[in-house]
Design goal:
The chain has 102 residues and is mostly helical. Helices cover 48% and strands 0% of the residues. The longest helix has 18 residues, at 65-82.
Length: 102
């Protein structure tokens, strides 16, 4: 059903797909789910026994302006939580929204 949700098709339509296409769609989803949620790499990337390499990636420092803005907003939110007045409600979080004027 995850595959149907991703491709936005009813299950009955998915079942009408060519079997090879169905298998590829399912395996693609399985492979995506096996990726590390933090760094996005797949275990096979690092495993020489399946064609990967222990040196598959190198870590590099990168800067993201969106992450910078989110971090700033989270710091302000934490400060507001510690204030005695006008505390944000529980469940308040930060998300980036596109600025229509930019």
């Amino acid at each position: 059903m995850d595959v149907c949700e991703i491709y936005q098709v009813p299950h009955s339509q998915f079942l009408s797909w060519d079997p090879d296409d169905r298998d590829k769609a399912v395996m693609h989803q399985v492979r995506k789910q096996e990726r590390c949620p933090s760094c996005g790499t797949h275990p096979d990337d690092w495993d020489p026994e399946v064609g990967g390499s222990v040196d598959a990636y190198t870590a590099k420092r990168v800067h993201c302006r969106g992450c910078q803005e989110t971090e700033k907003a989270n710091e302000a939110l934490e400060k507001a939580r510690q204030a005695k007045e006008n505390r944000p409600r529980r469940g308040t979080s930060i998300r980036l929204e596109r600025n229509p004027e930019a």
